[in-house]
Amino acid sequence: MLERTFAKWINTFSNAQQTSDNQEEKTRNEEKAAVSRKLLGMISRRCLMRCIVSLPKRWSSDGMVVHRDSEINNSNTPFKFTPENMKRIEVMISKYPPEYKCGALIPMLDLAQRQHGWLPISAMHEVARILGIARMRVYEVATFYSMFNRKPMGKNFVQVCGTTPCMLRGAESIMEAITKKLGIKVGETTKDGLFSLAEVECLGACVNAPMVQVMINDDYYEDLTPEDISDILDEFKAGKRPKPGPRSGRTAAEPISGLTTLTTPPKPPGFGFQPGI
Fold first, then answer.
1. Which stretches of sequence are listed as region Disordered (predicted)?
2. What is the DSSP track for the chain?
3. Range 192-220 average pLDDT
4. Do 146 and 140 form a contact (C-beta atoms < 8 A)?
């Protein structure tokens, strides 16, 4: 966009050169065009450097896209779906035409992670085998989505949304409160194995920003303040399950003043889910 804007300015100066009969004005326009070109180059370079040096940790870590065999994560790591989960997989695959059964890839990876606690490469290979697709297709998906954890995580996986609405509503202060409370940084796990911390992309609760998700029960905690998240972490430490949802008193994605469109309370989480899954 910047390049197009400056290009328009440059063209304006160039057109002025062609229509002007005054040599002095032509000289001034040439100087302006030269300055614009110089500014364009400087801004383009600065924007590029800003993009390179300011990537959040969730993007810049090579651990997101590179696999390195380890003692606990290699092709020989034992993994097989349980008989119960195989029945779930049959339901998932049945939702797609035979030639498009690979559409079940994401829910199958999610199921593998829930069974194993995280997603080793052997689980990816098992998913590829069942679907009859290349392993690379599974790698591409597993490394793209931050919901898939390719290393062991803490019992309570705290994910802080860092996208624009949450950021504008105070996500940075929530992250600061968590790191101070737990003594860990993004991408780390507490020594007792109770908590892991990550910054993630939008989790779809923008109206109740800022928010976090804790992946033990997939619970959302919304409309947070630093004090709220501190209390929530204390409850998890005590082995309790804090009540999920907005901390402001709202019961759904609604204005802070209450319902304005719906005539009845919204359906609860999980409404309409297929019981077979």
1. 237-277
2. -HHHHHHHHHHHHHHHHHH---HHHHHHHHHHHHHHHHHHHHHHHHHHHHHHHT--HHHH-GGGT-----SSSSTTS-----HHHHHHHHHHHHTS-GGGGGGGHHHHHHHHHHHHSS--HHHHHHHHHHHT--HHHHHHHHHH-TT--SS---SEEEEEE-SHHHHHTTHHHHHHHHHHHH---TT-B-TTSSEEEEEES--S-GGG-S-EEETTTTEEEES--HHHHHHHHHHHHTT--PPPEESSS--SS--TT--SS-SSPPPPTTTT--TT-
3. 90
4. no
Mean pLDDT along residues 244-257: 80
Confirm whether pTM is higher than 0.70.
no
Say which residues have a Cβ less than 8 Å from residue 119's Cβ, sequence separation at least 6: 109, 112, 113, 142, 148, 149, 150
Q: What is the mean pLDDT of the chain?
A: 83
pLDDT in tens, 6-24: 555 556 555 555 554 567 7
Taking CB atoms within 8 Å and a gap of at least 24, the contacts of 84-88 are 85/111, 85/115, 87/276, 88/276, 88/277
Domains of the chain with CATH codes? 73-144 (1.10.10.1590), 156-246 (3.40.30.10)
Mean pLDDT of 111-121: 94
Q: Using CA atoms, how far apart are residues 112 and 79, in angstroms rounded to an integer? A: 9
pLDDT number for residue 11: 60
